[in-house]
Amino acid sequence: MEPFVVLARPALVDAASRLEGFAGALTLDNYYGPEATRLSEFPAVRTILLEPDPILVDHFAAVAGPRIVDYRIVLLRPGVDGAPMLQTPHYQFDGGLPAAPAAPVGKDAALALTSKVIGFLTDVEMSYLWDLESSAPGGYRLEIGSWCGKSASLLSSLCRAEGTKLFCVDQWVDRQGDLPWDFYNQFVATMPRPVQGRLMDVFLYQAALYGYLDTLIPLRTRSERVLPLLQTDFGFMFIDADHNYASVKRDALCAIGRLQRGGIVAFHDSNDYFPDVREFLEQEFVRRTDFEFVGQRDSMMAFRKLA
Ligand SMILES: C[S@@+](CC[C@H](N)C(=O)[O-])C[C@H]1O[C@@H](n2cnc3c(N)ncnc32)[C@H](O)[C@@H]1O
Questions:
Q1: For an engineered disulfide with 121, which of 61, 125, 162, 188 has Cβ 3.0 to 4.6 Å away?
Q2: For the chain, what is the total number of helices (H) and then of strands (E)?
Q3: What would you report as the CA-atom Rg of the chain, rounded to the nearest whole angstrom?
Q4: SS3 of 238, please?
Q5: 255 in any annotated domain
Q6: Contact, 4 vs 42, CB < 8 A?
Q7: How remote is the CA of residue 20 from the centroid of ligand 1, in Å?
Q8: Does 274 reside within a domain?
Q9: Eight-class DSSP state of 91
């Protein structure tokens, strides 16, 4: 196993330290101490992230952000005899996480999988998102705003085929401010019991259930905190987080600095329901000379970077 760094409560670091590859830990005790400083010696950080938690991830991004090349979530807890067990921490799926099915091959199979994941993309948008990602240059993909993972499930299908990764930035607060309670409660009721009501758990559970968890690099934090720290270039970006004018503008301007030449950025919800997104794109983004308009289907609008 490659060296990994653990981000955890002190009680769990002991279990993690027995795994091959253990290279250090950040805990609540040493966040600002010498251990945290020593992390910068690692050429590349792979993290085992215990108990996804916004405070932990925010802090990790601040300390180790520029060195993140890849990390994955492996949930871990001490077993009965003290031996480390790779398992889910504070929630228990019956029999552990579901075994990952084979990756879907081709557009139709990917669309069939994505249509099972709860979310807001129309069929036309799903199909267009696939086409846009397929026509983008290779390399990492970035999604800002993942919610339960509908778009992530689609984008990750191509990532799996091409051996690349999808960074998913989301704060995963349990109820988004603009989501009506009725809708949220209805949605929660459809979720498997172990993950009911916890948004990031729903995201992770569905990713495991449908087999794309390993393709994801989830960054649980606010976009404005992590985007300036990313040192990775991306061939494709999908922006679907906060839809007010200032936020979509901030996310876009911050992210596109990391878009490769020829790379594509797609925006969701450019429509009457979210007029700020449409206004930002129509009044500002289309005027840019370093991007060309690629197209629009339903509320999805895409641009290609020229320079
Ligand atoms: C419309 S949903 C994303 C839907 C998703 N792309 C899909 O296909 O179902 C918007 C998401 O953006 C997240 N979000 C909003 N503002 C954010 C911010 N500043 N930083 C990180 N995530 C944010 C919310 O938590 C929410 O999960």
A1: 125
A2: 11, 12
A3: 19
A4: strand
A5: yes
A6: no
A7: 35
A8: yes
A9: S
Among candidate residues 55, 86, 117, the one where a domain is terminated = 86
Closest CA to 97 of 82, 113, 81, 86: 86
Report residue 69 as tokens: 């090349």
Q: Is residue 196 part of a domain?
A: yes
Q: Which residues contact 157 (CB under 8 A, 6 or more apart)?
A: 103, 104, 109, 110, 113, 114, 130, 212
Distance in angstroms (rounded) separating the CA atoms of residues 278 and 290: 19
Calpha distance 112→104 (Å, rounded): 9
> Considering the entire predicted model, what is its pTM?
0.73
Asked if 172 and 43 sit in the same domain, the reply is no
Nearest to 116 by CA among 148, 146, 150: 150
Do 133 and 217 reside in the same domain of the chain?
yes
pLDDT, residue 98, reads 47
Query: Which pLDDT tens digit goes with each residue over 166-202?
Result: 999 988 776 554 555 666 666 666 665 545 556 776 7
User: Do 275 and 238 share a structural domain?
Assistant: yes
For ligand 1, which residues put their CB under 6 angstroms from it? 119-121, 145-148, 150-151, 169-173, 176, 222-224, 240-242
Task: Scan for tokens 């609008």, then name that residue.
Answer: 301
Residue 201 and residue 63 in one domain: no
- Residues of the chain scoring pLDDT < 70: 1-16, 26-101, 174-198, 201
Give the closest residue (by CA) to ligand 1 atom 25.
172
Which residue minimizes the CA distance to atom 9 of ligand 1?
Answer: 119
Per the structure, the count of domains in the chain is 2
pLDDT at 99: 54
From the CA of 121, give the closest atom in ligand 1.
Answer: 8
**Boundaries of domain holding 155:** 107-305
Number of alpha carbons in the 13 Å side-chain half-sphere of residue 75: 17
